[in-house]
Design brief:
mainly beta; BH3618-like; nine-stranded antiparallel sheet; two-stranded antiparallel sheet; 1 helix; 11 strands; about 30% strand
Length: about 150
């Protein structure tokens, strides 16, 4: 299927690669279908979670384990029930990146990872209960303080 996107123009998307978010993403609950773009690019740690339902919407995402080696996801089974996770080995964990005008102020949301069950292509953004990881983790400084 063809998709006319804001960032990439017209792209061809394989329907088999569609990711379905039953609850959408917080703030975008009506947007349910996405596709992951650029994950195959080995030279970049960033890629895109591109909406199919709303082609002008795309989130920059990254692997949070790349950002913090000590990263972990701690959620209750009930929180991920709707995406039918049976084996953690089949889960792709992503974190949404915010890139402001001053790129040095780039942050990643480590508190609310996006989990994708690679067996059934279902996804969900979850919010971890503890405060181990912040919503705004400054990538350039490796912490909660912005770069100077």
């Amino acid at each position: 299927m063809q998709l006319n996107t804001k960032h990439f123009g017209i792209i061809e998307v394989d329907e088999k690669e569609t990711l379905y978010f039953p609850s959408g993403i917080p703030g975008f609950e009506d947007v349910k279908k996405f596709v992951l773009l650029g994950r195959q690019e080995v030279e970049s740690p960033f890629f895109w979670l591109q909406s199919i339902d709303k082609p002008d919407l795309a989130f920059v995402v990254t692997d949070p384990f790349y950002i913090r080696e000590d990263y972990y996801v701690d959620v209750d089974d009930e929180e991920v029930e709707e995406i039918e996770i049976k084996d953690p080995e089949n889960v792709l964990t992503l974190a949404i990146v915010t890139i402001p005008e001053n790129i040095r102020q780039m942050t990643v949301n480590l508190k609310a990872p996006v989990l994708i069950n690679m067996k059934n292509n279902m996804g969900k953004q979850v919010i971890m209960k503890d405060d181990t990881f912040p919503v705004k983790y400054y990538i350039m400084t490796g912490g909660s303080e912005p770069p100077r």
